Amino acid sequence: MGCRFLPTLLASLALGIALPMPVAAQAPEIVPPWGRELGGLSSVSAQEPHREPAEPVETATTENGKEEHRPLFWVEAEYLLWFTRNGGVPPLLTRGQTTAPIPGAVGQIGTKYLYGGSIDFKDRSGGRFTAGMPLGDGPFGIEATYFFLSARDTGTFATSPGDPVLARPFYDVVNNREDASLVTYPGVLKGAIDIKTSSFMHNGEVNLSATIWQCEKKRVTLLGGFRYMNLNEELKILESSVGDVGAMQFFGANFLISDRFAVDNDFYGGQLGMRAEFPLGPVDVGLVAKVALGDSHEALTVAGQTTVTGPIPINAPAGLYALASNSGNFNRDRLAVVPEVGVRIGLNITKRLSVFAGYSFIYWSDVMRPGEQIDRGLNPNLIPTSLTYGAPGGPVRPAPLLHSTGFYAHGLDLGLTFRY
To answer: Which of 17, 356, 364, 383 is the most exposed place for a label (fewest CB within 10 A)?
Structure first.
């Protein structure tokens, strides 16, 4: 029997069930008188030793007519060494010169960028776990997969007794110029600043499978089901300064300023795909392609806080980049597509156990990322540490940007497959 597609194979199975197999005619058994015991049965048959019934084993018939073991279930465990798309942030920390008109401001002589631009999370470890089982004796099955990339933090920490000057640059939308908020300055402020960006990603999916073509070890399977994916990222800025001797009214005052931009992206969608498996010399090769279409729910949280203890105390729910004009919780839904492709090469260790190595790539068309939600345009009248804080007028800036972009993750997979 040659290789067949699923409809022909099902038709053959149906005919095999409907038509009984012919039974060869048997000649009547002649039993001699000395063997006519127990109602005509021979004593040899009557005394045949007892045999335990064989354990039921599920089998499947291959195209060459041979029977092979059909697994009742299979599980996979993989180690992932993946990379994700870099994030991006505007200039958040600079080093300036005391001789500059506005130390640390963008475009000033001697200004050096300490944090800003592309944010690289580098390599990220994770795990992927898959389990599946057939549904009855036909070509259908069900499988479920979960994977995660462990949380990864990146950022910078800087401290100064005043010199060098540390500053946080922004654009003054009232006076239409580049400006900077000082973190440290000789004889006025000493302190430190900590900037940290974190990222965590995980995914879960359930698929029904149908083998539509099989020829010995070659197999093509259709997949269809549901996918959920989550990307959670956060950008935190914590500034701590103390007024120095030259700070006049702020001498001995403690400044604690924080900004937080957090995003939570959730994807819910239906999924279709195909998997092909075939031998290539001593190894087995597998290819998979899937695409999901659905809703990308994007949530943004912006919050700030300024606390000043000293001669002029301040306690305001605003930082520097997170002010009254853009703080709060924001949600929206966007149509998104999530394609995934993968390739693997496996080697059978035993009939039940195999090892494999592969490569995977997954893309998410619409997500929010925290660094892209920072509006550099600030109204000084809204900044708690500004000399004009509380004054009326000026543009309502910063604004909630709600920018979105594409995201991808890819890398190497190393795993084990166990079938039973």
So the answer is: 17
In DSSP terms, which residues pair with 200 in a beta bridge? Answer: 232
Q: Which residues contact 303 (CB under 8 A, 6 or more apart)?
A: 259, 260, 317, 322, 327
Cα angle, residue 170 at apex, residues 168 and 173 outer, rounded to 5° = 155
The pTM of this model reads 0.83
Q: Is residue 296 part of a domain?
A: yes
SS3 22: coil
Please indicate, yes or no, if residue 215 is contained in any of the structural domains: yes
pLDDT single digits (tens) 38-81: 444 444 333 444 554 443 444 444 444 444 556 689 999 999 99
- Could you tell me if residue 352 is inside a domain? yes
Residue ranges of E strands in 42-188 = 59-61, 67-69, 74-84, 87-96, 112-119, 123-134, 140-160, 165-172, 177-184
Q: How far apart are CA 415 and CA 349, in angstroms?
A: 13
CATH number at residue 192: 2.40.128
Is residue 218 assigned to a domain? yes
The stretches of 93-219 forming alpha helices (DSSP H) are none
What whole-number distance in Å separates Cα of residue 37 and Cα of residue 29?
14
> Residue for token digits 């300055």?
185
Tokens describing residue 258 = 């924080």
Residues, the chain? 420
Spatial neighbors of 342 by CB under 8 A, at least 6 apart, are 286, 287, 288, 289, 358, 359, 360, 361, 413
107 Cβ neighbours under 8 A, 6+ residues apart? 178
